[in-house]
From TrEMBL:
It catalyses: ATP + protein L-histidine = ADP + protein N-phospho-L-histidine. Residues 229-450 form the Histidine kinase domain. SMART domains: HATPase_c. CDD domains: PAS. It comes from the Bacteria. Residues 110-149 form the PAS domain. This is histidine kinase. Keywords: ATP-binding, Kinase, Membrane, Nucleotide-binding, Transferase, Transmembrane, Transmembrane helix, Two-component regulatory system. The chain crosses the membrane at residues 7-26, 32-51. PANTHER family: C4-DICARBOXYLATE TRANSPORT SENSOR PROTEIN DCTB (PTHR43065:SF46), SENSOR HISTIDINE KINASE (PTHR43065).
Amino acid sequence: MASRNFYIQLIFRVLFIALTALVFAFALVKTWYFTLAFSICFFVAQVYSLINFINSTNRKIAYFFDAIRNEDFTLRFPEKVSIKSFKELNQSLNRVNGLIQEVHLQLQIREQYYQEILKQASIGIMTFNEKGHILFSNPTLEKLLNYTPLNHIKQLTQVDENLYETFKSFRPFERKLFQLTNEREQVQLALKSTPITLDGKSLLLVVVQDINEELDEKETESWVRLIRVLTHEIMNTITPIASISDSIIKYYKNNGEIVSSKELDESQIKNTLKGLEVIKEQGGNLMDFVQSYRSLLNVPEPNQTIVKGKNLLEKIDVLMSTRLGEEQSTFYVTCQPEELEFFIDEKQITQVLINLCKNALQSIKEIEGGQVHMVAGIQNDGVKYIEIKDNGPGIPTDLIDEIFVPFFTTKNEGTGIGLSLSRQVMQLHGGSLKVRSIPNKETIFRLTFA
């Protein structure tokens, strides 16, 4: 609220303007030209002084916002003034200025904190705009690419021409793998992009990670699993052969000497024949096992053509319906949209789907109201997929990581290479085969196509 002093000054200024106007009118009537000129000048000066006096508050606020915009927090307004309202206004502006300065300092500290985190991160981080200008790249990225400083993605051509093309064609939420070869080594990079908006500008944030170490760990883990399964299968076959061979040798050797045919009785000869038959059978099983291994290593390159999804699923539906027989289980398919098409090797993918559907039907064989549902569709990101769902007992958590290991099986029959072959076929198609299982609720095998 304005003080009395402010009102008094305002009243006096208005009275002086009114008095000057009267003098101007009197001089105009009396034709006193000198007085007339003087009164005009004095009148203009008084009006300008009044406007300046009233607008002093607006100028203070304007100066204040200009200073804030320029991040100048040194501006201080005098608090020792005679007009109380101006004093209160100046105190409020100074107090707001102090608060904004404190918030600004806190934001700077937080920004430095986040910058330090990004600098120390073990993964490479880069942000660039639509024109390719790099706004930020952390030291880890520059170390991975062995190039510094990074100002524009065109500089990546000096690292690898294909790497520049990869970044240039990046789309939001896209994932890519890139093998970078330099003078020192080969580096396998995993790239992932995320769109962000900063100050109204669209930017692309790309995370770059060296996955060589992870790949080496996975490779070692896969070899350990494979060797464990191979050892188990081979030992199961070799052990009875060694045991029976040892028993037969005892029939024909005694204290290191060969027993004559006259000392052999009919039961020993019969046991020998039975033992040889078992050895032959086990040897045949071992040969089949090796043949399965060879087939796993010799999956042909897919001969891909355009295949209508609806026709593919209907074919599987017919094949699986013949397997249901008298069982109470149900099998049905859904293709959405109906005009969905896949670029695949029809024979290979058909075999994969048959194998997965057969496994699903076997899992619900003893389940009342068992169902298998095969669905084909398109994800939100445009990726095509086929899912095989069943409501069987599911896959135990401790075995779900083992089911794709060659020759691993929980069934009494089969070689245990069906899922391994299926995953390999999907990899040759540039896609993937993944599983998700909730015991006693549902199991879903998902085929995604690039």
